[in-house]
Amino acid sequence: MNVMILPNMAWGKDEPIARIQIYGGYMKFRLFPNCDSLGILLWQILKFQSLPSSIGASGFMASFSRETDQTIVNLIGDCFDRQPPKRPHAFVLMQRLMDEYNRRCAEAEGRTVLVQRFEKCRNLVNARRLCSNSPPDETFSEADVRVLLEYDESWESEGSGLRLAPEALFLIGAGLLWGLADPHHLSVPPTVVGRGSSSIEGRMVHKPYLTVG
Amino acid sequence: MKMSVGDVIAVLQAVRDIKNIIEATFAFSGECQGLKEKCEAIDKILDGNTSFENTEEFTTLRTAVSDALSYLKDCRKRRFVRNPLFEVLFHSRIEKYTRIMNDWIVIAILSVDVRIERALTESNTIVSETRHVSKQTLGVLKRMEEKMTDFTFLAERVQRLGVEDHRYSNPAARSELWKNVPVIAPEDVEIPKQPDGHEEFIGSLRTGDAVRFVPLERNKIDTPRLLVVYGEISRSVGIQRLFGIYSGRFGDYAVMEDLEVEVVLQDILANVDTKIKMIDPLARLKLCLDLATCIAYLHSIDLIVKVISDSSVYIRNVTGNLVPILVNLQHARLVTSLLIVENNNIASFVFRQLFLR
Fold first, then answer.
1. Is the pLDDT of residue B89 over 50?
2. What is the pLDDT of residues A87-99, one digit of tens each?
3. Can you give the pTM of this predicted structure?
4. Please, which residues have CB within 8 angstroms of residue A7's CB and are 6 or more apart in sequence?
5. H helices then E strands: how many in chain B?
6. Is the N or C terminus of chain B more exposed, i.e. has fewer CB atoms within 10 Å?
7. In a domain, B152, yes or no
């Protein structure tokens, strides 16, 4: 048996038997007091709105279909997809929410340029993931790498609510993997013993050794 | 030597678990293409016609898994993975399973003859004992049964190494687990009013934390392990905290965080409780992010919460930051792991069995 384990997969005796519906559940059979749904919970928080105990699935779906806030629809809209496999995993939701949170934080702190730079790097990585055969048209600039390194420990530090560390670390790693980031922009200390290679391309180092501008 | 037939299953299950984690991580990052090949190599061994009739075949399996783990560690060092949960996953699962795998594979290599002998006599009880034995595992057992020859020379090595029995059925191993469960001393608690029986009551710790004493079945074989598991989870994620165990007049209690002092989200949303305001949209978004992170973490360790609504989330105000705390985890379910060998239902695995609510 070779089965990919998905977070919302339930197991029977010998094999996975069903996907547990975590975002919306078996909505048409339940009223909300008994319904477990991360999507509905997030919607309630984002809208700052409680749901009447008598509301049913059709009632909720009807009110969600009238949702005018496009950001909310983009964040959690597919949690209520009628086809359960199309509903997102929790970590996908988490990443969406983190991206949106960082975007709004950056706006509030007047750092929209920073977010744009991250977005550019993210788009380059995504483009490479879709088409990795040909060499990239554009790569991370030295300034991009410098910014990514600068924020590789950004986790709601003093005076800033930004949580850019996961994104920065991902982009650095993905940039190296897909040949978008020049490893020579990251210096390697001479004391580091390589994992089978003395090549600079094989290693990633931490900020204390950073010599870039 | 006291080896159980479950050891064979444990070895193979551990290997499969590691493979599944690697696969999940592969999907998680979407970047580490090489991991796919490593996983396929493990699959090839597990799904192939390997009878594990000699140490070489076990060594091949171990090498394949170690190879995949090394690759995974390398990926981590090169920071290919975007999600911080990977780090949690890595620390809580990979290293643990590496250790388990190494232990069990060594045991398997050294004592396979004994277990095969028992497998022959106990094969009918394997399924009922373990509840979950994959076809693959049974297939391997069958092949072992058919082809296994003389491994008596290994018994001496086992004796020399002093290999322990299965850790959960071994009293000594259980007492080791108990050592990892913090014990709350009587002088560290304040109990305003004790009930007349083994019932739940409230109190406080000397540190000032309000706590709830939940009756505990100490003699159950799984109890120390369940406490350790719950303790580990509650340290990593925003769920009701477990402080330790307390021995009272009528029995033992799990000392749990008392959330009565916190505000339930339902009341905040319905404007019943006005202590906590959630007017700022950014604060609400952050709360959603924390909740999603919490659920993503629980999913990453194969737990499905099942019951999640505005009445199962408490909000704590920590110097202006709103922190969500999940409750009602007694309904959670374990979807897959090494522990599935022993019990495939987290509800009975951790919470429902642990507490006599």
1. no
2. 887 878 888 898 8
3. 0.57
4. A89, A90, A91, B296, B299, B300, B302, B304, B335
5. 13, 10
6. C
7. yes
Cβ of residue B284 closer than 8 Å to a chain A Cβ: yes
Residues of B in contact with A169 (CB under 8 A): 79, 81-82
Q: What is the pLDDT of residues A182-194, one digit of tens each?
A: 777 765 444 433 3
Task: Provide the domain limits for residue B302.
Answer: 260-331
Range of the domain at A164: 98-209
Q: Work out whether the CA dihedral B19, B24, B25, B29 comes out positive or negative.
A: positive
Beta bridge partners of A54: none
Nearest CB to A90 within list B32, B279, B299: B299
Those of residues 65-124 in A touching chain B at CB distance below 8 A are 89-91, 93-95, 97-98, 100-101, 104-105, 108
Q: What is the pLDDT of residue A149?
A: 79
What CATH number is attached to the domain comprising B252?
Answer: 3.30.200.20
Q: Do A78 and A125 fall within a single domain?
A: no
Q: Does residue A23 belong to any structural domain of this protein?
A: yes
| Boundary of a domain, candidates A88, A122, A142 | A88
Determine which helix (DSSP H) or strand (DSSP E) holds B204, and give its type and residue range: strand B201-205
- Within-domain flag for B200: yes
Residues B152 and B282 in one domain: no
Is A133 within 8 Å of chain B by CB?
no
